[in-house]
Write a structure and sequence with these properties.
Strand content: 15-25%
Number of strands: 16
Mean pLDDT: 90
Helix content: 25-40%
Radius of gyration: 22 Å
Strand order of the largest sheet: 11-10-9-8-12-6-13-16-15
Order of helices and strands: HEEHEHEHEHHEEHEHEHEHEHEHEEEE
Number of helices: 12
């Protein structure tokens, strides 16, 4: 199962609206076939593993990180009949599929077919791998990660706006990996104006392989020469309001950007609408790399599931330096947003603090949507 989990991780950020899944066929400690789901609409992990094993699969064990699919409402054939025909004798499933179209039906079908089925091996690790998919399926919205890079005293830029580079090379490499595991990256227009980022996972990736870039820009201040508009490395979605100039919207669309006009909410963008849009596109994981105000807005709106804080061993000080989270502070300490399952690690010279936003936070209303294809 450990190998199947490692394989599944290769699919992070590439399989939406499907989950990342890995599978291994083995007998007597020997691996006969292995594979992972690479992209939506392509073969599922079980198909790759069983193809590789061929006739040797008869009497062997299939290890799979997620319950195999059994429904027909998708682009690829269900995997349960393939497993039953393969001669596999035993199936070890890490966790059940939260999709209502599956949710135990695949496991039951295998047992009815005479196979031995075990469920729960490495369940925690498997559920963490599919947490973005599970979020969209069970809540109706993508799993949202807020990433912040700051000094030890919580500053993300100097008083003059300089922020490159607060963290070191190893931390920046880790951020690119985070981007690669995401379906979309969101920043505010302030970040684009200050840093002109590319917001890509890797420089050598194709346009289709890089995450969707989302820029919150209520009045379309984005320069026409910004990298997100000119480098051709990923798709770019500009989220604006009716207060933006119509002529600039049309010009940006001619330049290849997608422009989404939302109702003007006091110069801000409604997070509920943005996440609904991502849900409808079948996107599972959103990474926010905003400035102070975008960070504050996302947290106060209750849409953030996880916070990843990269802390550099530096001190800026000064009330005029830019803090990581803007907006207004609560009057009482008891109103502070709490994190749980907190872990602390090192990346190069920097520290990484990761935590889950405590359940019970207010979130937009949600509905279950979608499944595997």
């Amino acid at each position: 199962m450990a190998q199947a989990l490692r394989l599944a991780a290769y699919g992070l950020g590439k399989t939406s609206p499907n989950p990342p899944v890995g599978a291994v066929v083995a007998r007597g400690g020997r691996v006969l076939g292995a594979g992972y789901h690479r992209h939506a609409g392509g073969p599922h992990a079980e198909v790759f593993a069983l193809r590789q094993a061929g006739a040797k699969a008869r009497g062997a064990t299939l290890y799979i990180t997620l319950e195999p699919c059994c429904h027909l409402d998708k682009r690829t054939p269900p995997c349960v009949p393939l497993i039953l025909k393969s001669g596999i004798e035993r199936v070890v499933v890490a966790t059940a599929d939260p999709n209502p179209q599956v949710r135990g039906r695949g496991i039951s079908a295998l047992r009815r077919g005479g196979l031995q089925v075990e469920v729960g091996t490495d369940r925690f690790e498997a559920e963490r791998l599919i947490e973005a998919y599970s979020s969209r399926i069970t809540t109706g919205y993508p799993f949202v990660t807020l990433k912040i890079a700051a000094t030890l005293d919580g500053k993300i830029a100097t008083s003059r706006g300089e922020s490159r580079w607060i963290t070191g090379v190893s931390a920046r490499r880790a951020v690119r990996k985070l981007r690669g595991a995401s379906d979309a990256i969101l920043v505010g227009i302030g970040t684009v104006l200050a840093d002109d980022p590319s917001l890509t996972a890797r420089k050598d990736q194709s346009r289709s392989a890089n995450p969707l870039r989302i820029i919150l820009d209520p009045i379309l201040r984005i320069p026409l020469q910004a990298k997100v508009l000119t480098d051709g490395k990923a798709r770019t979605l500009l989220v604006t309001t009716g207060a933006s100039p119509k002529k600039k919207r049309e010009l940006l669309e001619r330049r290849g950007a997608e422009v989404l006009v939302l109702p003007d909410d006091g110069g801000r963008v409604d997070w509920k609408i943005v996440l609904t849009l991502l849900r409808r596109r079948g996107l599972n994981a959103l990474l926010i790399e905003g400035g102070a105000e975008v960070n504050a807005s996302a947290l106060h709106s209750g849409v953030v599931d996880r916070v990843i804080y990269f802390l550099a061993p530096k001190l800026l000080g000064g009330a005029d330096a830019v803090g990581a989270i803007g907006g207004s502070s609560p009057a009482r300490l008891s109103d502070a947003l709490e994190l749980e399952e907190v872990t602390v690690s090192r990346v190069g010279d920097d520290m990484v603090v990761t935590g889950r936003v405590r359940p019970g936070k207010k979130r937009p209303s949600r509905r279950p949507r979608g499944g595997r294809v």
